[in-house]
């Protein structure tokens, strides 16, 4: 290559480098406008509450408001699909949970997204312990008696849940499988109506997130048998763990985590993760979540890599549980 050719090549390379640098230099630093956080459930539920607590602190760290948008329907899968299909620019994220990103593929065989492949995981926000509860006049006085009664009378009993794929649906499917029970499973349009009928004695029992149940348990309008945690929850210190109460194999926790659409740039994922980690480290934010009964012990899943592993494990777990029990929704 002669001197002129080398000079021309060097000039072309310099121009190409400048052209590549100019758009980057012209772009405003992320984020330069508000961020939408999709919550795939109605306002006021546990996922919505956790989302708003975390978004409040993350907004201050990021310097832009995170606006919560509730997109309910189909056990949370409607909002999750919208999040998966959003532009991967960091301005649409989702507060998903164990149902939308763990149980949904088994509960909805025609699901139009894959929680393992169609999202960029940001990090785990909170775990939510599951409590086994029954109507206040249910005859069993403790969990051992409850399990024995359930085994002997399950075909006469009604179990309430918040709809196919919901946390109450999946966790009680696991409980029923473990004890060999086949109750009538009564579906409701959300936890609120299911819990109302439990309080009224119209149904016999359910499994649900502690966040939904603490006021009713404390008021004595429903009976709590056990919380599925390794240690007792500070929110319900008088309620034994499933291990203490004689059903150690029932270890299950719901969870909430933040996801972005697949293809979101790694630097944006990192920025969002840093904001989330700072939020969970904040004393006031932690207190607000813990006061609800939330569990913040799973630090490993607070990273994108740890959350990806959690999702993969949960999809496999709930596929086994729901397929083996026949609890998955057949068809559309």
Structure description:
This protein is α/β, with parallel strands linked by helices. Helix content is 46%, strand content 18%. Strands 1, 2, 3, 4, 7, 8 and 9 form a seven-stranded mixed β-sheet that branches. The protein has a two-stranded parallel ribbon with strand order 5-6. Residues 11-26 have low confidence and may be disordered.
Task: Indicate the topology.
Layout lengths: L2 H24 L8 E5 L6 H17 L3 E5 L6 H8 L7 E6 H10 L11 E17 L7 H11 L4 E4 L5 H13 L4 E4 L3 H9 L5 E5 H10 L2 E6 L14 H4 L7 E9 L4 H16 L1 H9 L12 H22 L7
Parallel strand pairs: 1-2, 1-3, 5-6
Antiparallel strand pairs: 3-9, 4-7, 4-8, 4-9
Helix pairs in contact: 2-10, 4-12, 6-12
Give the termini distance in whole angstroms: 65 Å
Give the overall pLDDT as a whole number. 90
Can you give the helix content as a percent range?
40-55%
The parts where pLDDT drops under 50 for at least 5 residues are 11-26
**How many DSSP E strands?**
9
Helix count? 12
Order of helices and strands: HEHEHEHEHEHEHEHEHEHHH
Protein name: Tripartite tricarboxylate transporter substrate binding protein BugD
Signal peptide: 1-28
Organism: Anaeromyxobacter oryzae
InterPro entries: BUG, Bug_dom1
Short description:
By secondary structure, the chain is of the alpha/beta class.
Please give a handful of descriptors for the protein shown.
single chain; two-stranded parallel sheet; 332 residues; 12 helices; alpha/beta; 7-stranded mixed beta sheet; D-Maltodextrin-Binding Protein, domain 2; 2 domains
């Amino acid at each position: 290559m002669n001197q002129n050719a080398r000079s021309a090549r060097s000039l072309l390379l310099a121009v190409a480098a400048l052209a590549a640098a100019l758009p980057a230099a012209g772009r405003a630093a992320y984020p330069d406008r508000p961020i939408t956080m999709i919550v795939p459930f109605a306002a006021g539920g546990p996922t919505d509450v956790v989302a708003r607590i975390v978004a409040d602190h993350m907004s201050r760290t990021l310097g832009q408001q995170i606006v919560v948008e509730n997109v309910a329907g189909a056990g949370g899968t409607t909002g999750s699909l919208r999040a998966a299909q959003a532009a991967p620019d960091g301005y649409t994220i989702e507060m998903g949970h164990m149902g939308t990103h763990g149980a949904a593929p088994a509960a909805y065989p025609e699901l139009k997204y894959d929680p393992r492949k169609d999202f960029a995981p940001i990090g785990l926000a909170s775990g939510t312990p599951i409590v086994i509860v029954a109507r206040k006049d249910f005859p069993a006085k403790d969990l051992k008696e409850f399990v024995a009664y359930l085994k002997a009378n399950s075909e006469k009993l009604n179990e309430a849940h918040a709809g196919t794929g919901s946390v109450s649906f999946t966790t009680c499917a696991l409980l029923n499988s473990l004890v060999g029970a086949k109750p009538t499973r009564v579906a409701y349009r959300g936890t609120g109506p299911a819990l109302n009928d439990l309080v009224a004695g119209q149904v016999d029992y359910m499994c649900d997130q502690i966040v939904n149940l603490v006021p009713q348990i404390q008021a004595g309008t429903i009976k709590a048998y056990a919380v599925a945690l390794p240690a007792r929850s500070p929110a319900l210190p008088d309620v034994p763990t499933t291990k203490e109460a004689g059903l150690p194999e029932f270890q299950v926790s719901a969870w909430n985590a933040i996801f972005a659409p697949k293809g979101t740039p790694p630097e944006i994922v990192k920025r969002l993760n840093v904001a989330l980690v700072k939020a969970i480290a904040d004393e006031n934010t932690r207190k607000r979540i813990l006061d609800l009964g939330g569990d913040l012990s799973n630090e490993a899943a607070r990273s994108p890599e740890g959350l990806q592993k959690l999702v993969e494990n949960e999809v496999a777990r709930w596929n086994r549980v729901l397929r083996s029990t026949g609890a998955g929704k057949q068809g559309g």
